[in-house]
TrEMBL record:
<protein>
    <recommendedName>
        <fullName>Undecaprenyl-diphosphatase</fullName>
        <ecNumber>3.6.1.27</ecNumber>
    </recommendedName>
</protein>
<keyword id="KW-1003">Cell membrane</keyword>
<feature type="transmembrane region" description="Helical">
    <location>
        <begin position="251"/>
        <end position="272"/>
    </location>
</feature>
<keyword id="KW-0961">Cell wall biogenesis/degradation</keyword>
<feature type="transmembrane region" description="Helical">
    <location>
        <begin position="220"/>
        <end position="239"/>
    </location>
</feature>
<dbReference type="GO" id="GO:0005886">
    <property type="term" value="C:plasma membrane"/>
</dbReference>
<feature type="transmembrane region" description="Helical">
    <location>
        <begin position="119"/>
        <end position="136"/>
    </location>
</feature>
<keyword id="KW-0812">Transmembrane</keyword>
<keyword id="KW-0378">Hydrolase</keyword>
<dbReference type="GO" id="GO:0008360">
    <property type="term" value="P:regulation of cell shape"/>
</dbReference>
<dbReference type="InterPro" id="IPR003824">
    <property type="entry name" value="UppP"/>
</dbReference>
<keyword id="KW-1133">Transmembrane helix</keyword>
<comment type="similarity">
    <text>Belongs to the UppP family.</text>
</comment>
<keyword id="KW-0046">Antibiotic resistance</keyword>
<dbReference type="GO" id="GO:0046677">
    <property type="term" value="P:response to antibiotic"/>
</dbReference>
<keyword id="KW-0573">Peptidoglycan synthesis</keyword>
<dbReference type="Pfam" id="PF02673">
    <property type="entry name" value="BacA"/>
</dbReference>
Length: 273
């Protein structure tokens, strides 16, 4: 039984890791897996563990960009105002501003969001995600990091806030928003996942109290470790895969996926749940 339990958590960790970066809603897929396959976890604690693994993967992939942004921010605050330093400091400010809408709404509607998770809701929102991706699949923006504006940051931040709805992909929403304001594929990818860092950190911090109130059962600890490792590895390779897809302008494949899985999830939920 212990082996079976570990395999279950490894599967859920892989599922989270694969679907977190790509625009098909990782939380939605976890909801469907738990309902259709009966792979139930203890809820928020597990989600924090596997999301943290995805965060580590993002931090590793963007480690050079993050270090550069930190160094240039410190330089700017110390009075060094070269063009490159100023632009990087400005990018940090834009990332902070873009985080605010999701942060505020996440705190206000935390309990409501958790209570509205259902397979039917996920299916509907996957269709919505698919429609949004279909409209921007051929979008070829020209904006680079140095061309971004406060308005761009606010718009992408609002799109990220929409992704609080279960079944709406966070990466999908931010990429749609970024491409919609004219960013090129590379800039949209980078801005989307740099924006993931403060949101993921915030989610983990908000969940600390819940983890303290309901600590991980010692019998589940090994399963959580395996799930973390699975999610970490899967997230890294999924990120690399998405980067290549965006560079080739092939986001349409995720739109098609959403159009297939969304209605299928609704039909199966109506029949079996």
């Amino acid at each position: 039984m212990v082996i079976i339990e570990i395999i279950k958590y490894i599967f859920l960790g892989l599922l989270q890791g694969i679907t977190e970066p790509i625009p098909i809603s990782s939380s939605g897929h976890l909801v469907m897996a738990q309902e259709f396959l009966g792979l139930h976890t203890d809820g928020l604690t597990f989600e924090i563990v596997v999301n943290t693994a995805s965060l580590v993967a993002v931090l590793f992939l963007f480690r050079k960009d993050i270090i550069e942004l930190i160094i240039d921010t410190l330089k700017y605050l110390k009075g060094e105002r070269t063009e490159a330093v100023t632009k990087n400091f400005q990018l940090v400010i834009y990332l902070i501003i873009a985080t605010i809408p999701a942060g505020i709404l996440g705190v206000i509607f935390k309990d409501i969001i958790g209570d509205t998770k259902s397979v039917i809701m996920v299916g509907i929102m996957l269709i919505v995600t698919g429609i949004a991706l279909w409209f921007i699949k051929n979008k070829r923006g020209q904006k680079l990091e140095r061309d971004l504006t406060l308005k761009d940051a606010i718009i992408v931040g609002l799109f990220q806030a929409i992704a609080l709805i279960p079944g709406i992909s966070r990466s999908g929403a931010t990429i749609v928003g970024a491409l919609g304001v004219g960013m090129n594929q590379k800039t949209a990818f980078k801005f989307s996942f740099l924006l993931y860092i403060p949101v993921s950190l915030g989610t983990a911090l908000l969940g600390v109290k819940d983890m303290i109130d309901t600590p991980i059962d010692s019998t589940l600890m090994i399963s959580y470790v395996f799930a973390f490792i699975a999610s970490l590895i899967a997230s890294y390779f999924s990120l690399k895969w998405l980067k290549g897809i965006m560079e080739r302008g092939q986001l349409g494949i995720f739109s098609i996926y959403c159009f297939i899985v969304g209605p299928l999830a609704i039909i199966l939920a109506l029949i079996f749940l």
